[in-house]
Amino acid sequence: MIARALRAFTLLAAILLCVDQAARAAEGSSAFFPSPQPEKDRLSIHAATDLAAMEPLIRDFQSIFPDVAIDYVEYVTNDLQKSASEACRTGAVLGDILLSPSVDQLVKLANDGCAAPHVSAETAHVADWANWRDEVFGFTYEPAVFVYNARLVPSGDVPRTHIELADLLRQRIDFYRGRVGTFDIRLSGIGYLLAFSDARQTTAVYGRLLESMSRAETVVRCCTAETLQDVANGTLYIGYNMIGSYAYAAAKRNSDLRVVVPRDYALILSRGALISKTAPSMALAKRFLDYLLSARGQKVARESSFFFAENGQLPDGADGPETLGESGIARAIRIGPALLAVQDEALRRRFIEDWSKSMIGGQGQRQ
User: Fold this and answer.
1) Which stretch is the leader sequence (predicted)?
2) Crossing angle of the two packed helices 162-171 and 203-215, in degrees rounded to 10
3) Superfamily of domain 142-268+345-366
4) How confident is the model at residue 260 (pLDDT cuts 50, 70, 90)?
5) How far is residue 115's CA from residue 136's CA, in Å, rounded to a whole number?
6) In the chain, what are the domain boundaries?
7) CA separation, residue 242 to residues 42, 163, 207, 221 (Å)
């Protein structure tokens, strides 16, 4: 009884921590990039993207347009969606451009009439699967990956497919109990999108993995950064469905971390950009979007921020196929009308309820 109460208290504390962090993020943690030369224009970016990842792109953009100052406001995905939706409904202004890995949420905003279309020489080069109605554009190519701590996970245990991860947690449940982390899809928009997309790949594999993760009392977190930090410090041994760019950046900082691109299939998200229909600096927002999509912007993103690309080899040290685009394992999350189903409120509520019963409720039944 005492052990059960302690586990319940720990789970509640983790949820309250994520809720508190999400509440702070809803208000927006902001950064200001003054123009290198006398300011003539100012761009407002509202984003569910780590500032550390966007800063190289922002500074390179300013090197091209040195009279532009930039306000950057950072959110978690669900809170950016709520703030943007409310601003759209009331006609208020919420920045010039929105950036988010939860492209289903951006598609919903565009479908609700919150986006301004943009057509240019740069948008013409965007793949069909990463452009919806010239309103939502994908500007990165990021796999969902496994991350593990090489000090703690024996080399023979390293999973390289979803089935291998499920089997590992079944076979070595005592060793990995409470030592695996993933998104709490109740709190994370990108976590929900990845879990929903997982379920669409193969119901049997997803169900088996979900059951194994539940039996292993997987720790759920609101954000990639929290899980990566816990894997780095040894509180967790393995992180599942981590955003590849953030995971690789963490591995560059900590030699104990390893990144695995699963070899059976790899979900690929293209972080999305949407220009607000109420953008005060509409022309500047379009200029910034063109920069993100340009060869120069893509080069900076690949080398300094997001690391992975459809064409070309995996970044040094990543465990996976030589290339993603040619490997046959890439499963791109298409930016299009199918994502509206992902945001259907009844479907979303039912999926999260089923996930909660399996992941959280199942843990409680076995305690």
Assistant:
1) 1-25
2) 30
3) Periplasmic binding protein-like II (3.40.190.10)
4) very high
5) 8
6) 19-141+270-305, 142-268+345-366
7) 33, 17, 19, 11
Per residue in 188-198, pLDDT (tens digit) is: 889 999 999 99
pTM score:
0.84
Residue 343 CA to residue 338 CA, distance in Å, equals: 9
Closest of 140, 138, 142 to residue 273, by C-alpha? 138
Strand partners, 99: 47, 273
> Same CATH topology for 19-141+270-305 and 142-268+345-366?
yes
Residue that has been written with the tokens 């979007």 in this structure: 289
Cβ contact 80:26 at 8 Å: no
Find, among 278, 285, 274, the residue nearest to 335 by Cα.
Answer: 274
pLDDT digits 0-9 by tens, 296-343 = 999 999 999 999 988 878 999 999 988 887 778 999 999 999 999 888
Which residues, including other chains, have CB under 8 Å from residue 349's CB and lie 6 or more apart?
none
Q: What is the mean pLDDT of residues 2-18?
A: 39
Fold of 19-141+270-305: D-Maltodextrin-Binding Protein; domain 2 (3.40.190)
Say if strands 29-33 and 68-74 run parallel, antiparallel, or are unpaired: antiparallel
Beta carbons within 8 Å of 255's beta carbon, 6+ residues apart: none
